[in-house]
Design brief:
Order of helices and strands: HHHHHHHHHHHHHHH
Strand content: under 5%
Oligomer: single chain
Shape: globular
Number of strands: 0
């Protein structure tokens, strides 16, 4: 197949980047709206946390079960179908009157929102190798910004117009995106597998045979775990002494994270370098430094701002390099690579949220810093052992 760049113009690529951000943002609106939702349905804060769990489980299942469908069916069809369903579920949230029905709809919203993860292999498989890393970098920027944008957008819109307005506006935006992409997206021209069962049964063998994939999974899972440890803890740090800030300030820190993500926009080109694994280690080291700085000066607001910025630079670098490395592998398996990587990635994030909340309440900022240092040191040890083993094998 001769690949033509005109199929994915710069303007379409930018639009798809925004769609990726909006799709991922679906997962994070309710995180900053839990108090509002709990009051609306007269349930406890602890019970309202079920919504976050439901949407994360839905998304993780979608990554594992639906994203690999891109190697069997047209990715164009899968993306448009996911968008239509996300529109419907966001709208249903605005009219539901039952908390537990809301939890079910959130689960389905998470399941449908994996269309963002189908966009990446779609563009990658239709892009020449020499520009693939840069284009994937654009899309991954959108996905990463969606994590931060969801919190900022949900917090501010929810404060002024209510939590249902957040999902109503999201439904309208996604509907507009669906209509535009129906006419703008090219056909999927990649060769497809004939059996979904064969695709699913090949996931574990792929993990076993692709050393690069295993390594990026370790780097990505650990980084997103540490990333979520920080962001979960940040709300507690800012809400207690010496700050006593409200949720609006916590949401505003999302803008700092966005700035850090944009500042790392150069990292898409690093995936093509010869010593790409060392760039991974550098990115993780930047994140480690941010935690060390947090431990030294967490009670000064300027330090928290600096830590947030540095952490997001390192996290974005690591994620972009990982995905760039994965998409240099066999194009026919891109959806499966993405599925495996993102399943572990989001499991790491869920684990980080759990660790962050419990560690902070038990040991404060010192505990957060120590746990994060242990995570990064474990990755360094894995990296060194794998290199020593590789040298002995040659």
């Amino acid at each position: 197949m001769k690949i033509k760049n005109r199929q994915f113009s710069k303007s379409l690529l930018i639009f798809l980047t925004a769609v990726c951000a909006i799709g991922v943002a679906n997962l994070y609106y309710d995180q900053v709206l839990l108090i509002n939702i709990a009051r609306y349905f007269s349930v406890s804060i602890a019970t309202s946390g079920l919504l976050v769990t439901a949407i994360q489980i839905g998304y993780t299942l979608g990554l594992f079960l639906l994203v690999p469908l891109g190697d069997r069916f047209s990715r164009r069809t899968l993306i448009l179908s996911g968008l239509v369903l996300a529109v419907a579920f966001n709208f249903l949230i605005t009219i539901t009157s039952s908390f537990y029905l809301l939890a079910v709809i959130d689960f389905l919203l998470g399941l449908s929102s994996v269309f963002a993860q189908v966009i990446v292999p779609f563009v990658s498989s239709h892009t020449p190798a020499e520009t693939r890393s840069v284009r994937v970098g654009y899309l991954l920027t959108g996905i990463f910004l969606g994590v931060l944008f969801g919190r900022v957008f949900g917090g501010f819109i929810g404060q002024f117009w209510g939590w249902k307005a957040v999902h109503g506006i999201a439904a309208i935006i996604l509907l507009i995106a669906t209509i535009y992409l129906y006419f703008a997206l090219p056909d999927d021209q990649t060769e497809k597998e004939k059996s979904y069962k064969k695709i699913m049964s090949s996931l574990l063998p792929l993990l076993k045979q692709e050393k690069t994939l295993r390594e990026t999974i370790v780097f990505g899972t650990s980084a997103f775990c540490a990333f979520n440890i920080f962001w979960v803890s940040l709300s507690f740090i800012l809400g207690n002494a010496p700050y006593h800030y409200g949720s609006a300030v916590v949401g505003a820190f999302g803008f700092i994270g966005i700035a850090g993500t944009l500042a790392a926009g150069f990292s898409g080109k690093l995936a093509d370098s010869k010593k790409v694994d060392l760039w991974n280690i550098l990115a993780l080291s930047i994140m480690l430094i941010s935690f060390l700085v947090l431990g030294i000066g967490w009670n000064q607001i300027i330090v928290l701002i600096l830590v947030t910025f540095i952490l997001d630079v390192g996290s974005r670098m690591n994620t972009t390099i990982n995905q760039g490395r994965n998409y240099r592998l066999n194009p026919q398996n891109h959806s499966r690579y993405s599925s495996l990587y993102m399943v572990f990635y989001y499991l790491g994030g869920a684990l980080g949220s759990l660790i962050g909340a419990n560690t902070y309440h038990a040991f404060g900022v010192t505990g957060i810093v120590l746990v994060s240092c242990v995570i990064f040191c474990a990755v360094y040890i894995y990296f060194l052992i794998s290199r020593i083993y590789a040298r002995k094998s040659t």
